[in-house]
Write a sequence for this structure.
């Protein structure tokens, strides 16, 4: 249930960007056909129900998955909103409030998310019950209605009823919709009101409003979805008015406006049944009717093109930042020995064993990275890496840095296209990961190739090279590993617990006397 709730939250956040875009377009395209605005809300609804999405380079969604389902297993829980400022503001709060403690028997974030998921389900049920009860009560109140006439909507006969319980004209029903009018409605207004309700039925607006309310019920906790629903209902009425007055004269539009004014009801009255149509928001509708002009062709064409662009940019997710994509994307690179070196990995506070001072980067090597004059280090054991001593973001997790905080550290750069470290754990990364100590979890090693072994316990073996391997073992994947050993394969008794012991010294002793690495 928690996973479904988190999926709902992530879908709501992604759709929220589309809702904001549609809100802005409503202001910019006020003179465009109202039916187009109605269609844009349909795109937003589609985004809210899409469990998967196409990835695109044109996507403007900052993050396809703001809250990872694995957040409950993280030693340092955090979100990935795709916006650095948001991450920097929110993640420290989450880490402080929900970081699991060895002294506690239960993960506080797991408990909080379970409670939130239960509240979400309860809210959905209450919303649906409210709508159903309101609908049934309204059906009961209009049972004394008197048949007034029948009208045609396409090839279907639609009955028009009059009722003393009808405060304002409305449409009730889905498969067989019916029009209800108040007895007090003046005869001169009846033709326009019925034409308006016919337009609703002709375009199946009763179904669209039902879908909209169901989405609000699913996302009742999201204020942007509520705002979208209210604006969607208003745009539905605008589009319906536009269809009715399109071929009316100025005098007839004035009469139509008077009919709207005579049927207006307070917003609270319209909320008695959220699935029926009542005449609300009349003031702005009257202004639109009185000032209606057929949109110019160029305006309609522009609005359509903008809507298509919005759909492409907000119905798609950003491409996953996989290693393959990162290596071949246009990104900062150091040029050395006819190779490009890119920087996909986290910086380290200490230089791994075997790397020695090789000089400083000149202008051609720095390649507009701003690192000209910085010291770099190479190793005879691994030609695919170089380390540059440079100012960079401070690590706040095993795969995340805070760019707002800066300090000088050793930044690894990997030779593009080498594939080293892509799925296979490297000795350099073991040394870097060891700096996070007790914060290391199973998830920090999930990305790398491994072999499952053991019985009763989870034991994963990560082959590093012909000399070393990493062993991670424990009882449950949700708990911290019992051990994380870097082992010398030629002598399995020689090993070190990377969270509590010095990996750098262990690697150095395995290779022999340390090389001089102090020079910069």
């Amino acid at each position: 249930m928690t996973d479904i709730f988190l999926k709902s939250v992530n879908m709501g956040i992604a759709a929220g960007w589309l809702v904001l875009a549609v809100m802005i377009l409503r202001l910019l395209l006020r003179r465009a056909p109202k039916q187009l605005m109605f269609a844009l809300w349909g795109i937003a609804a589609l985004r809210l129900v899409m469990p998967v999405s196409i990835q695109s380079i044109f996507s403007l969604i900052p993050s396809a998955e703001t809250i990872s389902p694995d957040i409950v297993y993280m030693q340092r829980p955090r979100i990935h909103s795709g916006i650095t400022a948001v991450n920097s503001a929110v993640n420290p709060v989450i880490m402080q409030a929900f970081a699991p403690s060895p002294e506690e028997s239960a993960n506080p974030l797991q408990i909080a998310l379970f409670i939130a998921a239960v509240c979400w389900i309860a809210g959905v049920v209450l919303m649906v019950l409210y709508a159903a009860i309101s609908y049934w009560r309204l059906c009961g109140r209009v049972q004394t209605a008197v048949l007034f006439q029948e009208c045609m909507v396409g090839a279907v006969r639609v009955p028009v009823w009059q009722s003393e319980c009808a405060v304002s004209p409305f449409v009730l029903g889905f498969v067989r919709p019916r029009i209800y009018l108040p007895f007090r409605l003046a005869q001169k207004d009846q033709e326009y009101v019925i034409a308006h309700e016919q337009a609703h039925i002709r375009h199946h607006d009763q179904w669209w409003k039902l879908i909209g309310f169901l989405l609000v019920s699913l996302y009742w906790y999201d204020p942007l979805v509520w705002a979208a629903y209210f604006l969607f209902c208003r745009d539905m009425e605008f589009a319906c008015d536009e269809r009715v007055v399109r071929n009316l004269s100025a005098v007839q539009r004035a009469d139509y406006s008077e009919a709207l004014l005579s049927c207006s009801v307070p917003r609270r009255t319209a909320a008695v049944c959220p699935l029926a149509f009542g005449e609300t928001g009349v003031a702005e509708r009257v202004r639109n009717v009185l000032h209606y002009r057929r949109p110019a062709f160029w305006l309609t064409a522009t609005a359509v093109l903008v809507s298509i662009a919005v759909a492409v940019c907000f119905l798609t997710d950003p491409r996953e930042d996989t290693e393959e994509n990162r290596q071949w994307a246009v990104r900062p690179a150091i040029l050395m020995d006819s190779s490009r070196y890119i920087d996909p990995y986290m910086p380290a506070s200490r230089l791994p064993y075997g790397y020695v001072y090789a000089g400083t980067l000149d202008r051609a090597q720095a390649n507009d990275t701003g690192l000209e004059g910085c010291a770099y280090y190479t190793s005879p054991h691994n030609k695919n890496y170089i380390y540059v001593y440079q100012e960079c973001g401070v690590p706040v997790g095993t795969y995340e840095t805070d760019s707002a905080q800066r300090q000088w550290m050793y930044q690894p750069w990997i030779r593009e296209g080498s594939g080293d470290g892509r799925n296979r754990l490297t000795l350099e990364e073991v040394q870097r990961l060891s700096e996070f100590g007790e914060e290391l979890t199973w998830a920090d090693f999930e990305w790398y190739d491994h072999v499952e072994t053991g019985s009763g316990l989870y034991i994963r073996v990560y082959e590093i090279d012909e000399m070393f391997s990493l062993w991670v073992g424990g009882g449950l994947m949700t708990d911290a590993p019992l051990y994380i050993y870097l082992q010398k394969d030629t002598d399995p008794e020689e090993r070190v617990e990377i969270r509590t012991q010095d990996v750098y010294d262990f690697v150095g002793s395995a290779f022999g006397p340390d090389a001089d690495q102090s020079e910069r």
